[in-house]
Write a structure and sequence with these properties.
Elements: E1 6-14, E2 22-30, E3 33-39, H1 40-43, E4 51-55, E5 59-63, E6 65-70, H2 79-83, H3 91-105, H4 110-122, E7 125-132, E8 147-154, H5 159-171, E9 177-180, H6 188-201, E10 205-209, H7 213-221, H8 225-232, H9 247-253, E11 261-265, H10 271-280, E12 283-286, H11 288-294, H12 301-306, E13 312-313, H13 326-336, H14 342-356, E14 374-378, H15 386-393, E15 403-405
Parallel strand pairs: 1-4, 1-5, 6-7, 7-8, 8-9, 10-11, 11-12, 12-13
Antiparallel strand pairs: 1-2, 2-3, 5-14, 14-15
Helix pairs in contact: 5-6, 13-14
This protein binds zinc ion.
Protein name: Amidohydrolase
Domain Amidohydrolase-related: 61-377
Organism: Desulfurivibrio alkaliphilus
Length: 406
Amino acid sequence: MATETRYLYRAPLVLPVISPPLVDGAVLTADERVLAVGPWAELRGEADESTKVVDYDGHALLPALVNAHCHLELAHLDFLARDYQPEPGEITAWIRRLLAERQECGAIAPEDAMLAFAQLFAGGCRTVIDIGNDPAGAAVGRHFRARLLFHLELLGLSGEREEAALARLAACPAELCCTGHAPYSAGARLLRALKERTLADGCLLPIHVAESAAEEEFLLSGGGPMADFLRERGVDLAAFSPPGCSAVAWLDRLGLLDERTLCVHAVRVSREDVALLADRKAGVCLCPGANRYLGVGKAPLELLLEHDILPALGTDSPAGNPHFSLWREMQTLREDHPAVAPATVLAMASRAGARLAGREKETGVIAPGVESSLLAVPCPAAGCDPEAALEYLTTAGGDVRLEWIE
Ligand SMILES: [Zn+2]
């Protein structure tokens, strides 16, 4: 009987994320799974004749990252975020430009979407929660060892548009995860129907929530720049009654908030909203790079953490974020929230997304049982001690050189 090859990786620093950093640590793997993680002094005795010992001298080992919010189908419009800068907070101006460019350029070619996915994989992401309006996006991840969790996004706020979205939802194949765009673009009936479907099929329900002042004003009063924009798009606002509350309170009234709903952005959230998110155990994903590009403000990360909410991190779409990298998201977050510990920021980019995606037993941490796909990153000049390495990893941005350990 063939003996399976076991690998024992040794490194001056191992960051399991789910447990404290290990100085002179080791990870034992076999059959594409982690068997054990611990100090080298403890695991070195595991090295028998079927074990290959690999020394990652000068490196830190860390888990695969998770991009918890992305729109790969907009990757061919990445020039928009580079060439066009909307006035701060003018999200409707950016959406207008985005829709015009999409009309002009047409749908993304499958190879371009794959290239964007490959770029995320090369940057250390093994799991991506992706949102798209075209069900063809579900096929993009098929040829990768990385995991693409695709969600078909439906829009329809009121009247005939909402009816059409409900009909589309009813016709969606059972294996396709479906979601709604945002509380200003998906009506109450549609959002409830989507939640009902995810309760039955176990899919996550990622929704853009509380991203901008324009959204806030629209939900409170039914007016403002978002109403102007929706009217321009032919949305029947006469058939829409504004809920007169925050986006978070509205989703709660609709019965949507629970641990399988992922509130993306969460910028314009009050203390009451955060308490509600915590109480309902709702998932939260922050997109600091996209928020900075659109000038919509910063999510209250410290307040979320105070409420025991560990948000995940997402790049959002390459058309609305000039940097398509989770390392850049960590860097932006550190700049925006210097008091937040680097270890927390790394956990947001790995463990938090894995947990929200229901994959914590598979990825995003280094622990027995998870996949053995790990990252090896050279330690900074300051050395491999946990403090220096975590500081470097969360501030290096796009400059991180990494190697996948498969
Ligand atoms: Zn988005």
